[in-house]
Amino acid sequence: EDQVTQSPEALRLQEGESSSLNCSYTVSGLRGLFWYRQDPGKGPEFLFTLYSAGEEKEKERLKATLTKKESFLHITAPKPEDSATYLCAVRAGTASKLTFGTGTRLQVTL
Amino acid sequence: DSGVTQTPKHLITATGQRVTLRCSPRSGDLSVYWYQQSLDQGLQFLIHYYNGEERAKGNILERFSAQQFPDLHSELNLSSLELGDSALYFCASSAGPSSTDTQYFGPGTRLTVL
Q: Alpha-carbon distance A3 to B102, whole Å?
C-alpha cells in the first residue's frame, strides 16, 4: 500500500530563516508527487508536481526537489504569509487517488 | 481561486439525516474526485468520476454515494449520518483520468452532525 510520511509535524521559523520540509514515500510505480498548501478551513492549493527523480521546480520562495525515496520543499527567506500546512501527496500506477501525508504545519513569525 | 466550486460551504444536521453536497469542476475538466478530511484521518480519497462514469472507489462507506451528471457537476450523497461523519468534504477536478493529471481542489463543505 502507498505510504507518505511528512516531517516535521510542525515547524516554527522566524521571518527570513530558511528551512526544508521532508516528504518520504513508498509507492509502486510513482506517477507523480504533488505539493499543496492548505490554510485553515480552506481547500488545498496546488503548488508543484514532480514526476521523476532529479526534477526540481521553483515558485517564489519555494523550491521542490525529488529523489527516488523522498521530496523536499525548501523555503527560502520565509515571510509570515507563508504560514500554512504543507501537504505532500503521491499518485501511483493507474490509481485515481492521491495518497496524502499528514502535513507539516509551518508558522513564520516576525 | 482554483475554479472548482462547492456548495454549501457549511452544513449542520442531525444524526440519521441525509445531505447532498454539490461540486462544479473547473471549466473543461472531465474528472471529479471526492475526499474527506477529518482531524484524525487527514485527507482520504472517496471516489472518482470521469465524464459521467465511476472510475475508482476508495474508503467510501455504503451509506455514501455519488454521481456525475451530463453537465459534469457532481453530487455526493451522505445518508444515515453519524457523529463520526463530521468532517470537511472536498471535491477536486482534473482535465482527464490520467494518473499524472494535477487535481485542483475546491473550497470544501464543512459538515457538522449533531
A: 19
